[in-house]
Amino acid sequence: MSDTKVIRVGDDYDVVIGRGVLSEVASRVPDGAQRVLIVHAPVMAAAAERLAEQAAVQGLEPTSVELPDAEAAKTVDVAARLWAVLAEAGFTRTDAVIALGGGATTDLGGFVAATWLRGVPVVQVPSTVLGMVDAAVGGKTGINIAEGKNLVGSFHPPAAVVCDLDLLRTLPRADLVAGLAEVVKCGFISDPQILRLAADAEAATDVDGSVLPELIARAVQVKADVVTSDLREAGLREILNYGHTFAHAVEQVSGFSWRHGDAVAVGMMYVAELARRSGLIDELLVEQHREALQLLGLPTSYAVDGDVDARWTALRAAMGRDKKTRGSTLRFVALTAVAAPTRLAGPDETLLRAAYEAVLA
Ligand SMILES: NC(=O)c1ccc[n+]([C@@H]2O[C@H](COP(=O)([O-])OP(=O)(O)OC[C@H]3O[C@@H](n4cnc5c(N)ncnc54)[C@H](O)[C@@H]3O)[C@@H](O)[C@H]2O)c1
Ligand SMILES: O=C(O)C(=O)C[C@@H](O)[C@H](O)[C@H](O)COP(=O)(O)O
Ligand SMILES: [Zn+2]
Predict the structure, then answer these.
(1) Is 40 an annotated catalytic residue?
(2) What confidence tens digit (pLDDT) does each residue in 6-51 have?
(3) Ligand 2 atom closest to residue 324's alpha carbon, by position in its atom list
(4) Where does NAD(+) bind (predicted)?
(5) N or C, which end of the chain is more exposed by having fewer CB within 10 Å?
(6) Ligand 1: which of 128, 168, 230 to mutate, judged by most atoms within 8 Å of the beta carbon?
(7) Which stretches of the chain are DSSP H helices?
């Protein structure tokens, strides 16, 4: 894929994927806006300045705010600070937010847009692979609290998503690879061609090549198709949560020090081990998970420094707060085969523990 690609999400909005498309951002702010709040990750300060200049040329009045980095942005304190900025600058319902950064920035920016005056438009400008393929698309926005990941949030679809692949040039390799975990997830739940393409790790991680853009576009297409038919996660959308029950527990228990994508990689291994023990899949498919993730340099095991029983107790409690849980019944997205997702509800506690032991480093 060398040219700009536009993927339409339902009848709602475009996801623009291409090189140099940052120049399109201001023109994607919906008509009627007079002011625009640009929130950005610290590393995106220069690009945010370009966006502010663009906005001014477009006749918009920009206010820029640099957020704390990564998960430190996804807090109620940061959101409250931005609500105060919006109030002070007189933002009305037709004014807009632009969020420029990784998934943490787009989650927070989207949440602030969703909550200000009960909802103003947001243009998402993801600067990580993970943000492009997942966080910026689909309208899930939110913040973390001490008790768990993304426990407070709202469904608030963006007005547009602009993925400038040139932004990925500065992305550290570890963050790029972590983003590929969500791409591999899309391969397992829906698009096996992703798994074939991602098996060439060199090509898949080359920001100047053609394979990474194709992987990004394919994963966006999977997400676009799913959220078009089930925005509010009444059923189908749950498949995008593959691997996340264990992943979010790992993130919370580590004090959000794990990269989300790395946690999703281990989370997919956990649920594959659980699915095998529950008779849904065979060892071959578990190994296919391990190989796909390891080829890219993603983690497939979980190291516990200390008491493994105490850690399990903490992880198990965190898994109970997963949004797919109903009552006290844990519900996992699992596979019966590649591209054949199902739900695994209320697996026996011994199987849950056995799958944990299987992923221990
Ligand atoms: N809303 C959703 O549907 C959804 C989907 C998946 C993930 N998420 C959320 O997204 C977050 C993870 O996103 P992420 O992996 O992008 O992490 P992140 O936002 O924390 O970014 C990772 C790191 O990369 C840096 N960075 C960002 N862009 C850069 C660039 N172009 N060059 C150099 N450095 C750059 C950031 O400053 C940060 O340090 C998690 O909070 C996760 O819960 C949300
Ligand atoms: O878009 C979705 O739906 C997803 O589940 C995508 C996930 O990759 C993402 O991490 C999402 O934020 C998790 O949602 P949560 O509802 O489990 O917090
Ligand atoms: Zn995720």
Answers:
(1) no
(2) 999 999 999 999 999 999 999 999 999 999 999 999 999 999 999 9
(3) 17
(4) 69-74, 103-107, 140, 149
(5) C
(6) 128
(7) 45-57, 76-89, 103-115, 129-130, 173-189, 192-198, 201-204, 211-229, 244-253, 260-277, 283-295, 308-319, 349-359
